[in-house]
Amino acid sequence: MSSDMPPVAKKVPTTRTHHGDTVIDEYAWLFKKDDADTISYLEAENAYTQEATGHLKDLQEKVFQEIKARTQETDLSVPTRKGAWWYYSRTEEGKQYGIQCRVAADGDDPPALTAGEALPGEQVLLDGNELAGDSPFFAVGTSAVSPDGTMLAYSTDFSGDERFTLRFKDLRSGELLPDEIPGIFYGGAWSADGSTFFYTTIDEAWRPYRVHRHTLGSDEDVLVYQEDDERFWIGIGLTRSQRYLVLSAGSKITSEVRVLDAADPTGEFTVVRPRHTGVEYDLDHAGDRFLILHNDGARNFELATAPLDDPGTWTPLIEHREDTRLLDVDAFKSHIVVHFRREGLTGIRILPGDGGEPYEIAFPEPLYDVAPSGNPEFETSRLRLGYTSMITPPSVYDYDLPSRELILLKRRPVLGGYEPEDYEQFREWATAEDGTRVPISIVMRKGAGRPAPTLLYGYGSYETSIDPYFSVARLSLLDRGFVFAVAHVRGGGEMGRGWYEDGKLTRKKNTFTDFVACARHLKAAGWSSRIIARGGSAGGLLMGAVANIAPEEFAGIVAEVPFVDALNTILDPSLPLTVIEWDEWGDPLHNPDVYAYMKSYSPYENIDGRPYPPILAITSLNDTRVLYHEPAKWIARLRATAQGGPFLLKTEMGAGHGGRSGRYDAWREEAFALSWILDRAGVTE
């Protein structure tokens, strides 16, 4: 097959019938990952994409060099105190992965670090570069130091399928223990004495469903808990106080939490409150009580307290508010920190432990995102915060509670003369078809002409919020006169729980029409000329849907690991994630109304013969969340059915859901996507 001609996928009609509806799927054969025809086809698509984008090679290299030149390659994080140590990570020029380190603590102020210089007494916990070796993919899933600071549990993945191997390192001697456990999931938790580690494993549908207890030096691990309801995932953690192990089971809409004294790792977990459909809750330990964040009769959540010996009895501490979504709570010895969302922005509320009046921390920018970050120490008078905006690089603050002072510890360096005042950010509001006002976050370079070519990003699922954020790579667009905008569409969480509920199940189409309304608003308000849309994963479903709804609005579409064969995937309970996803999308397998609704918007099902904009789909062969065959089938059907294009598919043959793992590899992938976006907008310099 010549690479200068688009591959033509063979048609092997496969028939399925649901609720009296018979559907023929000509490209279902692409599901067979190990079939030689599948691999051959994906490789032919890669060759065609390489040929079709060959004229962008110089631009790709230029954008890559811009990203690299703006990044301080030898860098380090702000140290975080835990027990007798300060923990931090650093990167070195020319190396793909980070290095995790620690130094002994001396006083309460973090040590002053200089990039490229090791501190006296530095201990390297994990060097990702050494661990990765020559592997084309590498990721760490777990990295947890025991409460006494003597042992490290860590897990690694060398294929991208998110199945990790767990190992243990004695930090006193630097030696690896012989204990080795393959096939585990993310996360894990130590017992109080560091003798025992709890971890989770997954079933065939890639659902974490078991918690195991491993005693160091033992060959026999104990199954502690198994979750048989296929809608529920489980996880295990340790409270900040290190007093309690917390075993959480959760579906998309329901929670159940169990607790166990961390000093008694062989004991029985106690249920906090039995699961009740639609009630979500989480727990933290605060001295003589538990803190419970829950939505029982409180759509935007409220904060309650519960006795240690009766954790199912909840007394309100912060009552529900319609205008404020409570996101998380962090308990410390002398105060409580609440992370919340109001009017599309995040915020921090402090509840002093001495009975003082609660208060919120003020921030100066009109658009920003703030969250507690790196606060493992239970007894402290400082709160570590992460802060960013569309023009302010990621910043680390300590908030000193006694003085109520924000102390800037570090702002990520952006090299090459970057000045925040050269850029400006705005909040606009589009009006959706049903009259709902939809927020849009916008950033551009000051003095850039308008209307301008625009990259419009969207997600809109799982109550995930795409808050204002900074991007070094994005500067390559802004400095060429682009506007970058985020459409905060329904299905996300930007405007509270109701915003999410109005973009899921049988209201899912609001997500798509909101995005189209944002694109049209940007043009009508004079912001945008040619708009290129971009989204990934569930945001890739958004891209496929808007391509069907309003192809004329977009000069190009980038869909990364896109969930574009949604109906077929959600119909198959044997696939990873399907059953748990029924709470998000509905159950088309058993409900004919849900089937009809999903069929009416699923991108793969609704391609027609109209002209479509050029589309670039990027996926990974080893993705366990959105399987590679979805974009492969989508592109094949687009090419066979639609006009317009071209329609390109790029498959990473050795990566997972997050794409390539090394930072330089990831920068090259981003440069590839950005050069295509620039080309679609007619902007190359």
Automatic annotation (TrEMBL):
Organism of this sequence: Microtetraspora fusca
Q: Which InterPro entries match?
A: AB_hydrolase_fold, Pept_S9A_N, Peptidase_S9_cat, Peptidase_S9A, Serine_Peptidase_S9A
Q: Which UniProt keywords apply?
A: Hydrolase, Protease, Serine protease
* Cited Pfam families: Peptidase_S9, Peptidase_S9_N
Q: What is the lineage of its organism?
A: Bacteria, Bacillati, Actinomycetota, Actinomycetes, Streptosporangiales
Please give the name of this protein. S9 family peptidase
Q: Which domain of life is it from?
A: Bacteria
**SUPFAM superfamilies membership:** alpha/beta-Hydrolases (SSF53474), Peptidase/esterase 'gauge' domain (SSF50993)
Which family does the record assign? Belongs to the peptidase S9A family.
Positions of the Peptidase S9A N-terminal domain? 6-411
Domain Peptidase S9 prolyl oligopeptidase catalytic: from-to ranges: 469-681
